[in-house]
């Protein structure tokens, strides 16, 4: 038996994979050399291993057009090529979100199908709303139809967050179109329009041209037609879409004619298909277990409650305790941290099924995202005649659990007591 330190130590008691890893790392008996990357780093390898794992390497090294001498690989970096070769020797690889795409590129280039499948599985398992746009681009570049379908499914289910993301503005025109033309997009059409306009502004920047209406229209081309303009709220269309002037005037008139007269003749560009998104549903989420009668100690002062949501949703309004002078009105402000998102004055307090509270609906719903702290401020026009001291910090809703937090913006209310008994939320 060989003693410690002899050349045979790397073989003794080792698995085939361990031995082959040593052969690759040490370049023992290597008979081919690659010049890899921009720096042409020399990486030795073994013909037998290469031709047994890849039909491309077989043609390159043993076919009638076999290359002689050192082989240049300029389009793969040294670290990725090392990972790729080690997989050929050992059947093992440590994939990460940083290296999976270039490894996939190498695997496809050299027709190592099993590694291609491993990379695709890796991408599928880590697919989320946050990386769906990035992975969609990968699927497009590397023609991975299964991954593309999965990406579009995730985007459809989390459309609001995806449309507002920075990654959306980085998409290529083809991937952008695959999203905006989909009937399965779960989004308000005004959100689709605003996302497309943001993409157009980003594309103008990438092309080093001014971000004006004409140039936005030019970079969008037929992508603009994938927006279902007839589904956009008419007030939003007149105030936002027409003011943006990206949609050509004659097409804007087509939309107005359709909305006013349901006229569709001569409008082949107008996409009349419905998106298959669910009709928005609203849910009242109570944060108090019991209600007490009696005048509130700080009437006419602003009361506030902060909260976090478990998923993307919208705030449609709040519940407000009844007053001693019904009908009454309420002023409401909504903040994301210190940023004012909404301000409404003299909003009507409308009685609901409760004997203690009514609903105050916002003129326009406020979009809510996970990971952010929102604050609702209420100032009543009349004296409150109910309050509570049994507040819950966590309340379940259809989307998960809403967390209520005491706010520094209020006079007296906390997560445990006070005013603003409920939030009206939904999709």
TrEMBL record:
Q: Which residues form the BTB domain?
A: 30-97
Q: Which InterPro entries match?
A: BACK (IPR011705), BTB/POZ_dom (IPR000210), PHR (IPR012983), PHR_sf (IPR038648), SKP1/BTB/POZ_sf (IPR011333)
Note the Gene3D superfamilies from the entry.
Answer: 1.25.40.420, PHR domain (2.60.120.820), Potassium Channel Kv1.1, Chain A (3.30.710.10)
UniProt entry keywords in alphabetical sequence: Cytoplasm
GO cellular component term, pick one: cytoplasm
Q: Which residues form the signal peptide?
A: none
Compartments where located: Cytoplasm
Q: What protein am I looking at? A: BTB/POZ domain-containing protein 2
Question: Which organism encodes this protein?
Answer: Mizuhopecten yessoensis (Japanese scallop)
């Amino acid at each position: 038996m060989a003693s410690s330190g002899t050349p045979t130590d790397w073989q003794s008691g080792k698995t085939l994979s361990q031995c082959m890893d040593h052969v690759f790392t040490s370049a023992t008996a290597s008979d081919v050399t690659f010049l890899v990357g921009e720096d042409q780093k020399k990486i030795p390898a073994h013909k037998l291993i290469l031709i047994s794992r890849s039909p491309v390497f077989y043609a390159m090294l043993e076919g009638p057009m076999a290359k002689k001498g050192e082989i240049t690989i300029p389009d793969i970096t040294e670290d990725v090529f090392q990972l790729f070769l080690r997989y050929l020797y050992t059947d093992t690889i440590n994939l990460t979100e940083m290296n999976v795409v270039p490894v996939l590129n190498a695997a496809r280039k050299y027709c190592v199908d099993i590694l291609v499948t491993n990379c695709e599985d890796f991408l599928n398992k880590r697919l989320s709303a946050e990386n769906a746009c990035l992975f969609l681009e990968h699927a497009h570049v590397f023609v991975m139809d299964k991954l593309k379908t999965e990406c579009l499914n995730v985007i459809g289910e989390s459309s609001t967050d995806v449309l507002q993301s920075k990654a959306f503005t980085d998409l290529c025109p083809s991937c952008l179109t695959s999203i905006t033309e989909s009937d399965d997009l779960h989004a308000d059409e005004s959100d689709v329009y605003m996302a497309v306009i943001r993409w157009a502004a980003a594309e103008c920047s990438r092309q080093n041209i001014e971000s004006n209406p004409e140039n936005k229209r030019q970079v969008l081309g037929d992508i603009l037609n994938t927006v279902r303009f007839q589904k956009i709220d008419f007030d939003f269309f007149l105030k936002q879409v027409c003011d943006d002037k990206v949609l050509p005037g004659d097409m804007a008139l087509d939309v107005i004619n359709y909305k006013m007269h349901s006229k569709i003749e001569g409008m082949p560009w107008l996409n009349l298909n419905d998106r298959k998104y669910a009709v928005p549903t609203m849910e009242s989420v109570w944060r108090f277990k019991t209600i007490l009668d009696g005048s509130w100690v700080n009437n006419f002062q602003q009361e506030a409650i902060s909260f976090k949501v478990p998923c993307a949703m919208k705030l449609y309004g709040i519940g407000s305790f009844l007053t001693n002078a019904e009908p009454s009105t309420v002023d409401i402000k909504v903040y994301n941290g210190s940023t004012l998102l909404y301000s409404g004055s003299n909003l009507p307090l409308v009685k609901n099924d409760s004997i203690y509270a009514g609903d105050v609906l916002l003129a326009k719903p406020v979009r809510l995202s996970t990971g952010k702290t929102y604050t609702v401020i209420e100032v009543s026009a009349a004296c409150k005649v109910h309050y509570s001291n049994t507040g819950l910090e966590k309340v379940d809703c259809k989307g998960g659990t809403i967390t209520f937090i005491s706010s520094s913006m209020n006079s007296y209310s906390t997560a445990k007591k006070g005013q603003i008994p409920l939030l009206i939320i939904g999709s």
